[in-house]
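Hey L., structure's done. Input below.
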Amino acid sequence: MKSDPPATAGLLCPMPVSAVGEIRMAHGGGGRMSQDLLERVILPRLGRRAAELHDAAVLAPQAGSWAVATDAFVVRPLFFPGGDIGSLAVYGTVNDLLMAGAQPVALTLSLILEEGLPLEVLERVLDSVRDASRRCGIHVVAGDTKVVGRGEADGLYLTMTGLGRVVPGYAPHPRHVRAGDRILVSGDLGRHGLAILNAREALGFEGDLNSDCAPLSEPVEALMAAVDAADLRVMRDVTRGGLSAVLHEIAAAAGLSFQITEAAIPVDAPVRAACALLGLDPLQLACEGRFIAIVSPQCEAAALAALRGCTSSVGAVRIGRVVAGSGVCLEDPLGMRRPMLWGSGEMLPRIC
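Output:
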């Protein structure tokens, strides 16, 4: 007599664990395929081993204050001239820590994967995360993976959190800004946002339209070595909303006004030409490897010399000064002043 099959037989997945070329829902189910994805694809590319895993990473004790930054990354396309979502996640998180005067110590990574994502795409992204982390001298110490249905994640999304130790004595913040301070920017603006748009829409613009996606470790460390902590008022990386958003945010938080010399703002010719054709404002375009620093007037020369001595900030310039009042204004070559526009919407969605 034949016995009835177990009640759970219909729930078992006969799919081979390893011979799968794309993400399946089972990869997020916590079973054998989840473990296979972790051990065969994710951990080796991040320099980790399954035997090291636990529910939480334990870090060695260090004295002092700590900084924490977290960000989600939904950029489209996943790969673009000058970078990809993996390096963007690492550098974006590391740069946020650096702006707080912190030395990055560790990262965590959360993966949201769409069913049907080719494994080779995931592998490329993870390789990029590993390479970018090594460049910054840190590691991914914890993470998580979830899988959603087809059409629900546009390939993959990343969320990254960074932990850093604040350099003793440094606490850059808008509250330290004073009238008379100088406003510096580390290099040309707008390339990242335009590079994403050019790649996404296949616009065909030529010239140097690669993203400036990069870590800011070298210029920030050089600046902090050249300037006393009290003279380095605030730093902020120029990301979503571009230079305009960053300046407006800091001016509002400081309760002061910023006067910006329009002709001093560095925008490369290809970016300026493309923006003119598309009707975009380059001052509202995102960067991913540029930052502004507000410093006391007496250390302006030392700060600029330090920045210009670094490869990624050789084009650093002073773009303005802080005065009493409120808001941000642009001064043209004739000395006429007008308010700097602050974008009210999402000019270029999904650029990070």
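The chain has two domains: 21-49+63-166, 174-339. Confidence is low (pLDDT under 50) at residues 5-12.

-- N.
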